[in-house]
Design brief:
This protein is an all-alpha fold. It folds into 2 domains: 216 residues, Citrate Synthase, domain 1 (Orthogonal Bundle), CATH 1.10.580; 97 residues, Cytochrome P450-Terp, domain 2 (Cytochrome p450-Terp, domain 2), CATH 1.10.230.10. It contains 16 helices and 3 strands. Strands 1-2-3 form a 3-stranded antiparallel sheet. A hairpin with a 2-residue loop joins strand 2 and strand 3. The chain is globular, with a radius of gyration of 22 Å. The relative contact order is 0.15. It binds coenzyme A.
Length: 379
């Protein structure tokens, strides 16, 4: 039963509003814990893979060995883009950023999916898998086209992390890079009702299709308050330039009320557990390399933030350093977030459809009332 809007409390930014139930992901913002279907991400990062996390989020439980083998066969056995997609992306102006290209390309992909408009669980699961296969290929192919190179075909059976790096660089990636990218993909796979997921669920709640919902979610992820923050965090580190300049830079930002990218979160009131894990890998990747200064500068930024504010690091602080060390251009950081979050978005879309209710909140009207129309000549 809907209530009188005038009497309702307004929750600006839907802060702390519990909009529905979900059994996909749990965040304990006070303790800094993140669970996927009940499993702590700390354990998942150590023992699992991005592909198994995809299975877990979509099917709600871990697979048996035989189930997982079948799943991997169909997910990784035939990773292909429709040839027309490459031709389409060739037409994009060179000024099109990778995340914009991805948003358009995901929408266009639906035209080559005969099941694209189906919203039942069975087809939905297949579409989710196709999106998860194809989005990394789209991101890598567009970057190569932008650099004047031809796309590279993925190697069947190799992991998504491996094939993304392989298709991007056109050569076998070092094992440590594949491992760290896989960790990053595990860590970004889902995060409850974050902005992009909620947008995706909103679209799904109209019983529109999965491609439309994921396209809309990519649009939401693109913003610097959400998935765009990892690129901003790296820009900040380059702007600071060296560890000794970090303290002054951060103090100046705080004094001027400038938001420091990679810090703060709507839900966590302590350090984001994903930042804790990525910090470790960023250190491991950069140690003894020409990129070590980035890690050291980031540590100084963190130290100054913790001493001068109550704002903690989030997932976007260290991911960029990891990607940069793997020679991934900054414009691809948010698309990598999308590669991973596609699994979460699609799990949420399937959950939304499984017990759908149109998402349609109310607004408390604060505009004028009772105005009389004045003809244009008299205004
Ligand atoms: C993530 C974010 C949008 C959350 O926003 P929010 O829940 O609306 O919280 P607010 O922006 O109201 O911040 C609450 C307080 O913390 C401060 N704060 C939050 N994030 C901050 C940051 N990154 N740097 C400095 N101060 C920050 C705000 O200034 C505010 O202080 P005040 O109460 O004294 O005014 C915000 O923290 C932010 O913009 N972070 C930077 C971008 C980023 O890293 N995004 C990725 C998130 S995973």
């Amino acid at each position: 039963m809907s209530q009188n809007v005038e009497e309702q409390t307004v929750h600006i930014g839907l802060m702390d509003v519990v909009a529905s139930t979900s059994s996909i992901c749990f965040i304990d913002g006070q303790k800094g814990r993140l669970l996927y279907r009940g499993y702590d991400i700390v354990e998942m990062v150590e023992k699992s893979t991005f592909e198994e996390v995809a299975y877990l989020l979509w099917y709600g439980r871990l697979p048996t060995k035989a189930e997982f083998e079948r799943f991997l066969d169909s997910l990784l056995g035939d990773m292909q883009l429709p040839a027309e997609m490459v031709e389409l992306m060739r037409l994009f102006p060179k000024t099109t950023t990778p995340i914009e290209a991805l948003r358009t390309a995901v929408s266009a992909l639906s035209h080559w999916d005969p099941e694209g408009n189906r919203i039942d669980a069975e087809a939905g699961m297949r579409i989710a898998a196709r999106l998860t296969q194809r989005i990394p290929l789209l991101v890598a192919a567009y970057e190569r086209l932008r650099q004047g190179q031809e796309p590279v075909q993925p190697i069947p059976g190799k992991s998504i992390a491996y094939n993304f790096l392989y298709c991007l660089h056109g050569q076998e990636p070092p094992e440590l890079w594949v491992r760290v990218l896989d960790v990053a993909l595990v860590l970004h796979a889902d995060h409850e009702f974050n902005a992009s997921t909620f947008v995706g669920r909103g679209v799904a709640s109209t019983l529109s299709d999965m491609y439309s919902a994921v396209t809309a979610a990519i649009g939401a992820l693109k913003g610097p308050l959400h998935g765009g923050a990892n690129e901003q965090a790296m820009k900040m580190l380059f702007e600071i330039g060296e560890p000794s300049k970090a303290e002054a830079w951060v103090k100046n930002a705080l004094a001027n009320k400038v938001k420091v990218p990679g810090f703060g979160h709507r839900v966590y009131r302590t350090e984001d557990p994903r930042a804790t894990i990525l910090r470790r890998y960023a250190e491991q990747l950069t140690k003894g390399t020409e990129h070590e200064w980035l890690y050291q500068t980031c540590r100084e930024v963190e130290r100054t933030m913790l001493a001068n504010s109550k704002v903690f690091p989030n997932v976007d602080l260290y991911s960029g350093i990891c990607y940069h060390t793997m020679r991934v251009p900054a414009g691809l950081y948010t698309p990598i977030f999308a590669i991973s979050r596609t699994v979460g978005w699609t799990a949420h879309i399937l959950e939304q459809w499984s017990d759908n209710k149109l998402i349609r909140p109310r607004a408390k009207y604060i505009g004028p009332d009772g105005l009389s129309y004045v003809p244009i000549e008299q205004r």
